[in-house]
Structure formats: structure tokens, C-alpha cells
Fold this protein.
Amino acid sequence: CGCRFMALKGNDGKPLSDNFLRDIIMNFMIAGRDTTANAMSWACYRLAIHPEVTQKVGPGLRGCVRCVLCG
């Protein structure tokens, strides 16, 4: 819950600024996006270098996502 962050105080005992809280939330959002993008990139790379695996998982992927490797 974001309320937990709003209750935090800095080293000086004062509440954290709105800008600082915004930056924390942005870090969570960006980190989530980057890790998903990295996982997708890694999976596509591994499928590209192992066409025999792509042939096996291709039918399942076609039902879930549009993959440039599988058509």
C-alpha cells in the first residue's frame, strides 16, 4: 500500500517530500517494466538460438502471444 510510504519520515524526522515519494513510486513502476522486458527479451533470444525448441513451443505461444519468431 502506498500509505506505508507516506507515513515514513526522513533522517531528520520530517515527513518525506511529495517529490521523494513520487520518485519511489516511479522506481517501482520502472523496475517492474524493465524486469518484464528483460525476461521477454531473454526468452525471445533463447528461442532464436534454439529453433528446435521454438518448433516445440510455437503452437502454445501462438495461442497466447503474437511472437515474431513463431508467426
